[in-house]
Amino acid sequence: MSRTEFVIATAIILFVAFCLGWFANWLVHRFTRVAADDVAQLDRMSQELHEAEETRDQAITYLQQREAELTNQLAQTEAELRAAMEGLRDARHETEEMRAHMASARPAS
Predict the structure, then answer these.
(1) In sequence order, which residues have a C-beta less than 8 Å from that of residue 9 and are 6 or more positions away?
(2) Which of 7, 49, 58, 107 sits at a 20 to 30 Å CA gap from 31?
(3) What pTM did the predictor assign?
């Protein structure tokens, strides 16, 4: 085999290898390409996820506000209960004092 034949054979082999590589690359990109419908579906899903996160954040904010309101109401109710219990205790104490005073003021029979 002469030098010219060797160069031509090498060039043909390299060209065939290049063509096979290009064809393999084209096949890979052809099968892994994302369809427009898939992109639209991903966009829709990301929008729905964003809306769901906003709704969740609004719900969390509402629950925190509601919890603060209920905690405040509970504290007020407990304060009112304590005040009522103290008033009742004072009234009972006053009633006992009145009974004791009336018992001591009765004439002995």
Answers:
(1) 1
(2) 49
(3) 0.53
